Amino acid sequence: MNNIHNADFDLNLLPVFDALIRIRNVSRAAQELGMSQSAVSHALKRLRLFFGDQLFLKTGSGMQPTPRALELLEPVLAVMGTVRGELLVREGFDAATARRVFSLCMTEMGELIFLPKLIERLRSAAPGCTLRTLQVPMQQIEDVLERGEADLALGSLHSMPDGLFQQQLFTRSFVTIVNRRNRQIGEALSREQYFAMEHIVVSLSGRVEDAYDGIVDQLAGPRRIYLTTPHFLTVPMIIEANANLIATVPRELASRFAGYRSIKVVETPVVVPAFAIRQYWHPRFQHDGANNWLRKQVKDVFDLHQE
């Protein structure tokens, strides 16, 4: 088997392998690399010839790596991590001329409230860059960040692996949304009403124990949970059609939901500590110039959001 020191091997092929193993799509990999799709396809052909393996097979769900490609994954990522973290970082990241895709793991709540402001900032500071958002199961986030399939994970994430770096962006409180047509509820919701009514909870994993507002049950006692859903944005529509249901949600989200004529926002009648929104990244990219720049943009956007 040929090895990496073979004079016939072009080290410029490594970024192509790195992009394909992370993105699993030739056209998006080309976009990130600032190459044409045909150039990436040609590079893949050379990689296949050198390693004597197809490496990536085209399927309905994208370019899937072969067992040989998976064997190469760790050493290639290690090399690329060293290049990004120890060599290229010295040159910095020129946002004004860069052409790449930044990928963020975030919930639809983050997309609704914070993504528009981040888009506005990046359009101005990095006009050649674009954004992609991913919704990734909690247990896969560390691997996704390590492989570089996502640059950052944003949100209030439970049970995040200790190995990830993190930065707190801000803290926010919970409020409760109810249906205005429910005549049993006035301008305030009593504790007795709160625990007597049926609740909607949001859980990205689909398990009640992972509910976004699960701290309520831990501190104040179990609620009557009628519906568990992974989607924030359907909650006001469900409550609009079912006046006997209520939900406890982050305050910023509730302010958006108040745009529904039938939705009313009330204070949650139990003491619920504020929750922290953080950004997470893998240690491999701690010194990566682009990742470092993106983290600063996210922090600045969140700081402005609090003003």
From TrEMBL:
Residues 9-66 form the HTH lysR-type domain. It comes from the Bacteria. This is DNA-binding transcriptional regulator, LysR family. The lineage of its organism: Bacteria, Pseudomonadati, Pseudomonadota, Betaproteobacteria, Burkholderiales. Belongs to the LysR transcriptional regulatory family. The keyword Aminoacyl-tRNA synthetase does not apply. One of its GO terms (molecular function) is DNA binding. Keywords: DNA-binding, Transcription, Transcription regulation.
